[in-house]
Amino acid sequence: MTETKHCAYDFTVGWAGDMNPPSRTDFVSLTLTGQGSGIYNNNKQWRRQSCWRKWKLLSRLQRNLILFTVALMLVCGIATNPSVTEHFRGLAVVAKEEGDHALKPAIHEVQPELDKLNRPLVPESPSEKQKRAAHKRGPPGLQNRLQKKGNVSDTQVEKEEGENWRVAMIDQATERRTAKEAANKVDVPEVEQEGHSHKEPEVDRLEAVRDAFRHAWKGYKEFAWGKDELRPMSKSYGEWFGLGLTLIDALDTMWILNLKKEFEEAKTWVSTELSFDKDVDVNLFESTIRILGGLLSTYHLTGDTLFLDKAKDIGTRLMPAFNTPSKIPYSDVNIGKGTAHPPRWTSDSTVAEVTSIQLEFRELSRLTQDTRYQAAVDEVMQKVHKLEGKQDGLVPMFINTNSGQFTHLGMFTLGARADSYYEYLLKQWIQGGKKETALLEDYLQALEGVKKNLLKKSSPNRLTFVGELSHGRFSPKMDHLVCFLPGTLALGAHHGLPAEHMELAKQLMETCYQMYAQMETGLSPEIVHFNMHEGSIGDVDVKLADRHNLLRPETVESLFYLYRFTKDRKYRDWGWEILQNFNKYTKVSTGGYTSINNVRDPEYPSPRDKMESFFLGETLKYFYLLFSDDPELLSLDKYVFNTEAHPLPIWPTAQ
Ligand code: DMJ
């Protein structure tokens, strides 16, 4: 049967707000009728021609009115879409942050990448959407974890490489060679399976870490030798203290990785070039954990007194920091002049900084038989132990160097400015032979405080996370820095603390891994916010300003502890995934690795042009220890690692 129909449109654009009909036509009534009594032909071409003819029949005014109405509807639709408005707000935040960066000179080379990050918002084409979906590693519901049990294959890595930003930056030849070499050096463990014994080939992960170190060192050696930090994109360097920070931080890593040639070159620099007799302000905490800690551990590993002499020199030069009315040290010391001062804008120090220098100064006293170092840092701990202003063992973030009291009361975090206070309570107790009970009490009480005030579950997947408290208000914000905690909890359980600490460590370890796995690059952002509302689509939210990754070590560090104590291979596999993603998104062709601005964009992760010294001092060292099968390689019954991954001995008399 043929259906007869009119192609009829009725557009009425007008105003009928008055009861009386208007005396003139304030509206346009438009009726379009189909092709008279023509037979309705529903083929596409007929429809297209017919509508086009109708359109041509309209007056210009009518056409303009229609176009205007359609445009208005589109604009309203976009403006009321929350995800779009949020994106615009986010772009404004990034623009502000990058504006701040622009003040710093060496960032100019990175600007094209930043421009790409701020590229205009355009709707994604279906093919782009598909591409994104392919890159997305952490779909809601942790499908990601379930889907990708194994490692990304080399072929897949190479295929993806061709599509992303690194085409311009990364030396793919180097990378393929590395993958090939790694694949050739196979570690072939015997695996018993259903009565059959077969060889299971495994990429030599230890060699992959050594390759990563060599690549980082190549950049440092070529463009930043003897300087604090490599700027791998601009092939230059940055100075912070002017003390060869990266070189010193990396000394014991080279020793542990058995990179003899590199170690010897660095040692020559220390003996011939390194001088602390310099009119320079250094941060007490950073120079203690990186320089003093690095020299002490290298002395222990090598037995070479060069490093002990240097350690004593820098330790002594840092001591003026403790000359304060309260004996709570200032943040900054001029190691040439022997003067110390707080930052320009405050007389406060941060709590983590004044309570995370103890392992190093205590060890320096033990080695030199000079008790002054230990006395100074022990006094800080004794004062903090007694202070008011804690909540269930949790400490505020600031302490005043004049009054010796906590300031900015009511704010509690296990992230920046407080993190290593908790870590050093446990580690000092271990270092000293588990005798200093005040340290243990403070540690255990703080963990109760964490459980009571900061520990929550996310939605929908019930990941356990540690949030923050501000004047009684809980915030589901967690810094990547907090990922030291699973490792510290596991270490405590290994040294006899309750087994439930290990259970909590495992839960938090899973969360820290998900902070990587749920990102499109497979690398964690600096800060995440967990969703807690029922029915949330994903567990993790990341604000635009928090999407950077600084090559930080905390998750890898915890994976190392968890693997050492449980021997569960999944921790190694997680670490292997992370190493591959560092190689994929942060490796710079001409040498070195770079921090990135955006872990959510695998096409434009936007390099920041900086390789932090802790990438060599900590991150790569913990990767190596994670993949090593030798439990005697820095046994956790003999050594305790400082917060910069420098192993210091557990005191022999104390055991
Ligand atoms: C390092 O300097 C130390 O691990 C410190 O405790 C925290 N920050 C960095 C690494 O993220």
Automatic annotation (TrEMBL):
Disulfide bonds join C483-C512. It holds the Pfam family Glyco_hydro_47. Pathway: Protein modification; protein glycosylation. Keywords: Calcium, Disulfide bond, Endoplasmic reticulum, Glycosidase, Hydrolase, Membrane, Metal-binding, Signal-anchor, Transmembrane, Transmembrane helix. The active site is at E286 (proton donor), D419, E526 (proton donor), E554. GO terms for cellular component: endoplasmic reticulum membrane. Residues 108-201 are annotated as: Disordered. It catalyses: N(4)-(alpha-D-Man-(1->2)-alpha-D-Man-(1->2)-alpha-D-Man-(1->3)-[alpha-D-Man-(1->3)-[alpha-D-Man-(1->2)-alpha-D-Man-(1->6)]-alpha-D-Man-(1->6)]-beta-D-Man-(1->4)-beta-D-GlcNAc-(1->4)-beta-D-GlcNAc)-L-asparaginyl-[protein] (N-glucan mannose isomer 8A1,2,3B1,3) + 3 H2O = N(4)-(alpha-D-Man-(1->3)-[alpha-D-Man-(1->3)-[alpha-D-Man-(1->6)]-alpha-D-Man-(1->6)]-beta-D-Man-(1->4)-beta-D-GlcNAc-(1->4)-beta-D-GlcNAc)-L-asparaginyl-[protein] (N-glucan mannose isomer 5A1,2) + 3 beta-D-mannose; N(4)-(alpha-D-Man-(1->2)-alpha-D-Man-(1->2)-alpha-D-Man-(1->3)-[alpha-D-Man-(1->2)-alpha-D-Man-(1->3)-[alpha-D-Man-(1->2)-alpha-D-Man-(1->6)]-alpha-D-Man-(1->6)]-beta-D-Man-(1->4)-beta-D-GlcNAc-(1->4)-beta-D-GlcNAc)-L-asparaginyl-[protein] (N-glucan mannose isomer 9A1,2,3B1,2,3) + 4 H2O = N(4)-(alpha-D-Man-(1->3)-[alpha-D-Man-(1->3)-[alpha-D-Man-(1->6)]-alpha-D-Man-(1->6)]-beta-D-Man-(1->4)-beta-D-GlcNAc-(1->4)-beta-D-GlcNAc)-L-asparaginyl-[protein] (N-glucan mannose isomer 5A1,2) + 4 beta-D-mannose. Residues 108-118, 173-201 have a biased composition (Basic and acidic residues). Ca(2+) binds at T643. The chain crosses the membrane at residues 65-84. This is alpha-1,2-Mannosidase.
